[in-house]
Amino acid sequence: NKVQAALPVDKEMLQKLTLTTPEMNAERQKMEEEEARRERVQQLLANIMPWETRDAEREILVEECKLAILNLSKHPDTFRGPYPLPPLPNTSHNEQEDEDEKEAGPSPESLLKLAKLEPLPPLLAEFDLDAHVGLIRKLLKEDPMLVEQQSKLSGAGDREWTFWRNYFFHCAFTRYEAGLSPDEIWSDDFISVQEAQEEEREETITFESLEQEQQENKGEAKPSSLFDSPPTPTATSSQAEKAGTTMMTTTADGSTSGASSNDEGTDYEMIGGGEDNDSDAAELDELEAEIARELQD
After folding, report:
1. Which of 217 and 267 is assigned the larger pLDDT?
2. Residue 41 burial (10 A CB sphere; 0-12, 13-18, 19+)
């Protein structure tokens, strides 16, 4: 505000000086989105080899396609057409003539393949070498002959770009001949589908993690196993009292008898209720016998 007050600069001029005009902001946002998309495409391309497929019904074709693609690096013509390979830099005149004899141009066969496969998938028609960097690294580990051909034929700049453009074209054509779609790897539609599937998987993982965290916070117990043994029954207080009581019965002579359980509750001790009466009767009999003897004397 102080700067604006001190200098006769309007808002539009200030935005231009600070590179914050609406046009520049839109252009900057567009560049950032394009860069983010290129990184995303690079990740997706690196997740599938040129001979692989996500179609379960065509898995049977993968092995044959793999052998055919690995065989491409054995033939130098794979890298010289259908797009002309630029000359190597920093070569002498004689060396360049020898190189021209070897690299006369794309073979007629490669040009026929190009005509047969056109229109090419977008990621091949507008070939982006940076987007294929991750896939190239995996291929170099898989195919030693590809490493050798790169050291011989590839260079820098346009030559390297054309070297890999020709190679991936032949990979796509080999897929086509094997019965696998080149669009599965190099189509914008395929990339969009993969991005949508990746986002859906990430949302699912996030939702499941959040749901699990909520359950843990609530302290919800995990469901018990179907094979958990049932709890051992425990005797109630009333059952315990019954186990320790004496069972009373009435005898024929009117006396009572009882059975009390011991500590284990299995054996019982019989207690006669008429023992005191029997002892009293015996004492009376002895007393009568003694009185009888005295009377006789």
Report:
1. 217
2. buried
